[in-house]
């Protein structure tokens, strides 16, 4: 891969007033979590229609075992990888203002990132659809499915966005505010195919900012949005980039 792109990308971050990162499933693949699309992707094995909020409410007994299999069983012992740690290091060095992630695995926080906006929510919380109380997912046993709400016995839902569900306004506002302040957006491991999340890097670009993309394959962003495209695994290219920035 051309070091020219790497050096120019590193210089853009060194010279930036405010760099943010926008991440997707690709940054967690090297932590053992499959992506949604592409070879071996979740949606090549499971029907995304089952994960629509309306379908879930009508068929909780069918969907909860899928949620356990696709998310809870996989994420339980997932660890951050070198890419997550590289972003945490860049933030600790004062060169990254924060991360907007589409991921629900909370691996950015586990790696030490302090400012993380979970645009699609998090698997770490559940909410009762009757009494609306939130619970730490670790406190809810998945032996019996659907797990009953400890407070009222109602239907618990993981606190991440299902298809057909809106983005909570507070996290949408925090994420877009960060993008409006940023003059560099470091896009890692996402094809930007899901909206409104996929628009985040365009907020930076449309205000004259620079977009750096790290992806295993070229994406919809690569030929329209990205100023620098660093091809390869996030766990390899992102630490390289951070070393080039911090020296
Ligand atoms: N390193 C870097 N990029 C990778 C790697 C890797 N090791 N492995 C895969 N990728 C890239 C793929 O090339 C692809 O562009 O990560 C991206 C994964 O794409 P998706 O699976 O579509 O993930 P994402 O873009 O985060 O999906 C967005 O879709 O289903 C919804 O809510 C779900 O948050 C998710 C949203």
What would your notes on this structure say?
Its EC number is 2.3.1.286. The active site is at 120 (proton acceptor). Keywords: Hydrolase, Metal-binding, NAD, Transferase, Zinc. It is an enzyme of class 2 (transferase). It contains 8 helices and 9 strands. It is an alpha/beta fold. The strands form 2 sheets. Strands 3-2-1-7-8-9 form a 6-stranded parallel sheet, with helices on both faces. A 3-stranded antiparallel sheet has the order 5-4-6, with no helix packed on it. Helix 1 crosses helix 8, helix 4 (82-92) packs parallel to helix 8 (234-246) and helix 6 (169-181) packs parallel to helix 7. The protein is elongated and about 55 Å long. The mean pLDDT is 96. The structure holds adenosine-5-diphosphoribose.
Q: How does the major sheet shape up?
A: 6 strands, parallel
The oligomeric status of these chains comes to single chain
Total of helices: 8
Count up the domains: 2
CATH architecture of the largest domain: 3-Layer(aba) Sandwich
InterPro entries: DHS-like_NAD/FAD-binding_dom, NAD-dep_sirtuin_deacylases, Sirtuin, Sirtuin_cat_small_dom_sf, Ssirtuin_cat_dom
GO molecular function: histone deacetylase activity, NAD-dependent; hydrolase activity; metal ion binding; NAD+ binding
Keywords: Hydrolase, Metal-binding, NAD, Transferase, Zinc
Pfam family, one: SIR2
């Amino acid at each position: 891969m051309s070091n020219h792109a790497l050096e120019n990308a590193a210089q853009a971050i060194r010279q930036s007033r405010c760099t943010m990162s926008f991440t997707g499933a690709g940054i967690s693949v090297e932590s053992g979590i499959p992506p949604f699309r592409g070879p071996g992707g979740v949606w090549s094995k499971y029907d995304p229609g089952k994960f629509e909020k309306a379908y879930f409410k009508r068929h909780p007994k069918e969907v909860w075992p899928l949620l356990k299999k696709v998310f809870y069983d996989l994420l339980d012992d997932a660890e951050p990888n070198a890419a997550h740690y590289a972003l945490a290091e860049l933030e600790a060095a004062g060169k990254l203002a924060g991360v907007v992630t589409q991921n629900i695995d909370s691996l950015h926080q586990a790696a030490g990132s302090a400012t993380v906006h979970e645009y699609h929510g998090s698997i770490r919380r559940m909410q009762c659809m009757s009494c609306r109380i939130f619970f730490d997912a670790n406190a809810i046993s998945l032996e019996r499915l659907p797990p009953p709400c400890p407070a009222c016995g109602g239907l618990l839902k993981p606190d991440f966005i299902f298809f057909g569900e809106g983005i909570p306004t507070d996290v949408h506002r925090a994420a877009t505010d960060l993008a409006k302040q940023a003059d560099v957006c470091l896009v890692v491991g996402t094809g930007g195919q899901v909206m409104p999340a996929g628009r985040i890097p365009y907020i930076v670009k449309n205000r004259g900012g620079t977009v750096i993309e790290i992806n295993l394959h070229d994406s919809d962003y690569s030929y329209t949005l990205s100023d620098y495209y660093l091809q390869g695994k996030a766990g390899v290219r992102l630490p390289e980039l951070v070393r080039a920035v911090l020296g």
